[in-house]
Design a protein that fits this description.
The chain has 188 residues and is mainly alpha-helical. The protein has one domain. It has eight helices and four strands, in the order βαβααβαααααβ. It has a two-stranded antiparallel ribbon. α5 crosses α7 and α5 packs parallel to α8.
């Protein structure tokens, strides 16, 4: 997201709608092999820009320069929810290959949609486990344990398939995300 420069870093009005913004670069461990092989993606529309900015505004530490809050304006909750809802199909498509991340990301989307707060994945999973039907809890409980290093990645021994839990959370996010929110509700 491009911004006008400001000497005091005080101009934090977004120049673009962050719901579907072009990102120029992203790095994550899941991309390491591609980068090491010289496969560097070009700019692309990314529905994850709003959630990434909301996370930075919620919990980041500037190593150099001003804090994120001084550079970026608040993310309207409606934009954040819309971005997350747009990302659901591609997220669900990765369920078989990245089960832990998908389940925890859905839990965080649900938490953010309902509360307006961006929290860690394990915090979101704990919150979601209090609200999800008991029969759907095992995959999310397991994902949370994998995330904090208490269990291995295998989902084969669970009494229920992760897809049922993912579908349940997806449906909640879609239904809750369609309600009308106030534009004043922003993630800071």
């Amino acid at each position: 997201m491009r911004r006008r420069p400001s000497r005091q870093w005080g101009n934090t009005t977004p120049l673009v709608d962050v719901r579907a913004t072009e990102r120029e670069f992203q790095y994550g461990e899941w991309l390491r092999d591609d980068y090491e092989a010289g496969l560097i993606p070009g700019p692309q529309i990314d529905h994850d820009v709003a959630p990434l900015l909301a996370t930075a505004l919620t919990a980041s530490i500037a190593l150099v320069g001003p804090p994120a809050r001084a550079v970026f304006g608040p993310i309207p909750h409606q934009h954040l929810v819309a971005s997350m809802r747009e990302a659901i199909p591609s997220l669900i498509a990765e369920l078989d290959s990245d089960t832990t991340n998908v389940l925890l990301t859905l839990a965080r989307m649900w938490h953010t949609t309902d509360t307006g707060l961006v929290v860690t994945k394990d915090t979101a999973a704990s919150w979601a486990l209090e609200r999800i039907p008991a029969e759907l809890r095992p995959p999310l409980t397991h994902a949370s344990a994998v995330y904090i290093g208490e269990e291995d990645e295998s989902y084969d021994r669970l009494p229920i398939r992760a897809v049922s839990t993912a579908r349940h959370m997806r449906t909640i996010i879609r239904n809750r995300g369609s309600r009308r929110l106030h534009l004043d509700d922003c993630v800071l």
